[in-house]
Amino acid sequence: MQNLSNIGNISELKINGNRSLRYLKTGNGNPLILLHTIRTQLDYFEEVIPQLAKNFTVYAIDLPGHGYSSIDPKASYDEPYFRSAVIEFIEKLDLKEVTLAGESIGGVLALTVASKLPSRIKKV
Questions:
Q1: Which residues lie below 8 Å from residue 40, measured CB to CB, with a gap of 6+?
Q2: Which of 73, 31, 70, 72 is nearest to 52 (CA)?
Q3: How many CA atoms lie within 13 A of 111 on its CB side?
Q4: Reduced to 3 states, what is the DSSP secondary structure of residue 23?
Q5: What sign for the dihedral angle of Cα 90, 108, 51, 69?
Q6: What does the alpha-carbon distance between residue 18 and residue 6 come to, in Å, rounded to a whole number?
C-alpha cells in the first residue's frame, strides 16, 4: 500500500451543514471523479490513480460515512444521500467537463449524478 500523500494532495471539503468529504486531487487535464463502493474509501483506487493522473485531474473521494468523510448518525446512507454529496462536491469545486467512474454503488452514482448535472458531466 502506498502513502496517499505521495500520490496527491489530500483535502477536506465542507459541502453543507456538518457534512464534509475527504478527497485526493492529483494530475492534469479534465476532471475525473472516482467513486468507490460501500465499505471502502478513496484508498481503493490508489493503484490506478497514478496512471489516470497522466491524462486527468483525478479526484478520488470518500463518500459520506466512509473513510475520513463525516458521519451523520441520522442519515439514511442511500443512493439519494450519496448522490447529493457528489453533486455538491462538483458544484462547490465548480468542476466542468467531468468524467465520472465508479464501481458498484459508485457506478450507480456516476449515472444518477450525470442525469442531474448534464451540463457539467462529459462522460461516465
A1: 66, 67
A2: 31
A3: 6
A4: strand
A5: positive
A6: 29
What pLDDT sits at residue 18?
Answer: 85
Residues present in the chain in total: 124
pLDDT of residue 5: 73
Q: Which of 41, 31, 15, 6 is nearest to 99 (CA)?
A: 31
List the chain residues with pLDDT less than 50. Answer: 1
Which residue type occupies 44? Y
Q: What angle do CA 6, 84, 86 make, to 5 degrees?
A: 20
First to last CA, the chain: 27
φ, ψ for residue 101 (rounded to 5)?
A: -140, 140
The pTM score is 0.94
